[in-house]
């Protein structure tokens, strides 16, 4: 039986960045299983969460124990939104990589040993797998930044220089 593709749990910030960059459909073509908590999918309006599920984003539901775990984390991590904590619990329980743009959520995940990546990693992977070329990655990144994405400036500049070459 072939190995199943690696799983990545996506939070709303990454989905919104990819939407602004015009790359959601392409991101769902990566050789990863992309999933998001049902609460994240249901809160999305732009992009439309149910449309993302139709495109292949997996929608994860939670047991009572997992909801209790989120509530406990909520008390400890007041700066992180409840939907983001659901993404953390999902990544932990499925042994997935967490895709997030939230700095505090990233720090919590790293402390817990959960692999963490962000929007820029997704762009790198889209280029690496030949799903988009560097020119399209550059345009998408510029669109994300124009929409107010809070990606790390030095990392954005580094990619922009590389993709312009």
Whole-number tally of structural domains: 1
The CATH class label is: Alpha Beta
In CATH terms, what is the architecture? 3-Layer(aba) Sandwich
Please state the overall shape, judged from the principal axes of the Cα atoms.
Answer: globular
The total count of strands amounts to: 5
What do these coordinates show?
The chain is an alpha/beta fold. The chain has one domain: 3-Layer(aba) Sandwich (Rossmann fold), CATH 3.40.50.1010. Strand 4, helix 7 and strand 5 form a beta-alpha-beta unit. Helix 9 packs antiparallel against helix 10. The longest helix is centred in the middle third of the chain and has 13 residues. The chain starts with 6 loop residues before the first strand and ends with a helix.
Short characterization:
With 165 residues, this protein is of the alpha/beta class. It contains ten helices and five strands. The chain has helices at residues 12-20, 24-27, 38-43, 49-55, 64-76, 82-94, 103-111, 119-128, 134-146, 153-164, and strands at residues 7-10, 33-37, 58-60, 97-99, 116-117.
């Amino acid at each position: 039986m072939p190995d199943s593709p690696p799983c990545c749990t996506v939070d709303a910030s990454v989905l919104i960045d990819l939407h602004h960059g015009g790359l959601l459909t392409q991101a769902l073509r990566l050789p990863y299983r992309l999933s998001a908590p049902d609460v994240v999918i249901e809160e999305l309006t732009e992009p439309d969460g149910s449309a993302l599920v139709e495109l292949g984003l997996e929608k994860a539901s939670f047991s009572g124990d997992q909801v209790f775990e989120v509530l406990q984390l909520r008390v400890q991590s007041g700066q992180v939104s409840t939907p983001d904590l659901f993404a953390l619990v999902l990544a932990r329980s499925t042994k997935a990589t967490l895709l997030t743009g939230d700095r505090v959520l990233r720090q919590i995940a790293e402390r817990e040993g959960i692999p963490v990546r962000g929007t820029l990693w997704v762009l790198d992977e889209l280029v690496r797998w030949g799903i988009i070329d560097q020119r399209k990655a550059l345009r998408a990144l510029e669109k994300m930044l124009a929409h107010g994405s809070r990606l790390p400036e030095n990392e954005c500049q580094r990619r922009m220089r590389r993709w312009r070459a």
